[in-house]
Write a structure and sequence with these properties.
Length: about 130
């Protein structure tokens, strides 16, 4: 028989609501302006939440949890799974994008080489005949 986990037995995140909002936002590599835009609020509002000068209303808290990919319980109480470290920092994103472009260029170059080889063979065959 499985027993349900008791949230009081877990080690809650002892950061503040504002600190958890900030960490979750950082984990997604979002600026406060980007988060505010996604939520339909002003950057000052997000800054106030993150500095614990105010708290989001229940409807905004639910939207906030959804946008940040965390549970409302974690945001409010620090119980549950915290967000992971930033998935891709902007510098890493640039490198990944550059590698992808290089791969596409390499593939295109390979196709061009094959086309030139085929044309050279066709010309050579014509010269020999």
């Amino acid at each position: 028989m499985h027993s349900l986990p008791n949230i009081t037995n877990e080690n809650p995140d002892d950061d503040t609501l504002g600190g958890r909002i900030s960490r979750a936002r950082d984990a997604l590599d979002l600026s406060t302006a980007q988060l505010a835009r996604r939520l339909g609020v002003k950057s000052d509002t997000v800054n106030a939440w993150e500095s614990d000068r105010s708290e989001p209303r229940a409807n905004r808290l639910m939207m906030l949890a959804g946008v940040l990919g965390v549970s409302p319980t974690w945001l409010l109480n620090g119980v549950g799974e915290s967000p992971s470290a930033p998935v891709i920092h902007s510098e890493m994103h640039v490198l990944i994008t550059q590698v992808a472009k290089l791969k596409r260029s390499h593939e295109a170059m390979g196709k061009m080489i094959n086309a030139i080889e085929s044309e050279a063979k066709r010309v050579a065959d014509r010269l020999i005949s």
